[in-house]
Every structure is written in C-alpha cells, then in structure tokens.
Sequence to fold (338 residues):
Amino acid sequence: MATITDVAKAAGVSSSTVSHVLNGTRFVSSETEQAVRDAIARTGYTPNTLARALARSTSNSVGIAISAISNPYFSDIIRAVESECAAVGMTVFLADTHDIPEKELEVVQALHQRRVDGIILAPCSDTEQSALAYLKENAIPAVLVDRLASADFDQVGVQNSASVEVLVDHLFNHGHRRIGLIPGQVGFATTRERIEGFMIALKRLNLAESDCPIASGSRDVDTAAASVEAMMQLPVPPTAILAGNNMATIGAMRGLKRTQLRVPQDIALVGFDDFEWADCFEPQLTVIAQPCLEIGRNAATMLLDRIKRPEKGLETVRLETKLIVRNSCGCGAGLNAG
Fold:
C-alpha cells in the first residue's frame, strides 16, 4: 500500500508538502499541487481521512436534524443539501427528529458527539428551544431551515406571511368572503407566520374575522380532517378552505370527502406546499410552491461558509414562493362562492 513518503518521492517534493496539499494547511503553488495530485494518482495512495480529520479537529461531515420521515416536504431540501456537500467532499448524516422536542435535542447531541462540523436543523415546536440552546452553548455552526425560529443562527426559509396573503387574495378574487384556515402544527414558526399572513389579508380586504374561522392547528392528516369537518358544521360555514401545509391539505381533502362536499363545485380548496401528487388529485390542487431545492442549496452553502468563517455576521434568507393555479380553487369550474 502506497504511503505519503511514496507520493513525496514520486512528486519530487517533501512529505510535509504532500501533507499541506492534502490538508490545505499552507499555500502551495499550483504547479507543485498538480505534481502531488498526479503522484497520488500514479501511486494509488489513499489518504487516511479519519486521521486527517482528527488532526484538524474536523470530520468533513455535517448533520441534518429534520423530520424526514414524518414530513415528505423535506426530501427535496435534504437532497439539495447532500448534493452541495458532496461537491466539496463533505459527508452528510441524517437524523430524524420526528418533530418531538426531546428527540430533537437527542439527535443534535448525538450529531455533535460524532464530531460533525455543523448542523442543519428544522426546529420543532419546543417552547424551551432546548436544541437551539445546546447549539448556541457549544458554539456549533448551524443553519435553521424552513422554520426560522431564532435570529441567533443563520436561517433560510420562505416568505410565509406574504405567500398566505397571495392565497387569500386569489380566493377573494373568486368572490369568497368566508375563508377557513387549517394551519399547521401549533408552535411552529411557519404556522405562526402563516396565521399572521392570513390575519393581515383579512384586515386588508375588510373580511370579518367571525366569517373566517381558524382551526386550532393540525398535527397530522387526521387532525386536519377533523378540523375541516367541525368547521363545516358551523351555522354559516366557509365557502373556501386554506390549508397551511401539505399534510393539512391532504387532511382537508379527507374531511371534505367525509362531509360529502365536492371540490371545487361545493367548496374551494387551496394549500401551502406543492407536492408530488398535487396535480394528480381530482381536482388538481391550487397551491403555493416552495423552492425546496433552492432552500437546501442555500442552507448547505450558508453552513459551509459558517464553518469556514465562524466570526461572520448572521444571515436570514427568505426566498420567494410561487402560486400554482390549478382548479381546486374553482378556476374554470364555475364555482358559486355564495
């Protein structure tokens, strides 16, 4: 098996120069670096990446702590993070938080103990913010993704409030004056911001809050379905439903089916999050689409930069969303808003 001495001999340089090329610990001319790279290829030398990482107190790895299994929305974000990190030779470790505060803290601690160089976290609804406190106390480079829960970290997400306003405006332009909101899980930063956007839109459009009910929050598809069923039993039910995330949208469809209401003939439905099956439903779903791949790319780039430059100023990035108009809102369906 080739050694670093064999590489140095083949390249006509010292062993320390080979080490500097491998570890990036000192400037080496491009000609010398290329000679070393060529010698590595010729000799078949394989660097001991673990030993190099320990010597530099790094692991060339990052962790993602996210509810990957319980929420398929995050799959594109994870894929983009992995792609960006792989391009610079970084390994990605994925840990599922299940959106449970205790589990979230546990996986963040586990990733730290495994010496990851930084962590990308989609924080759950932990009122004590235990995982965030752990990250801050241990000065772990971190980026919050999707749920922008603390200005103490770099963050990347979307314009939640403004995007919900777009959905309300779209329904309003269809003649709806009674719009019900099925928000996401209570305590999430995204849920708070989307409710805020809903309330801003109601005030701007002079819609009565009493005519536009807001459910208490949906943990999953079943609770969203139950919320819709309850909403449709009101003395004067809404003529349109706005679902606050992909799980709430699916739940709303289920709840409306149970009440034997047809979408969009009897009631309009719009949702926050586009997803793989949104254009396969009947009717096809009108939604706000988030730039998931761009969110992931930004998160990875921000984290890698934070690892290299821990002293740089904190940054919050909010990306624009896009309204995807299909026909669950009543476009082209002759919906009577009532």
Notes: The two ends are 79 Å apart (CA to CA).
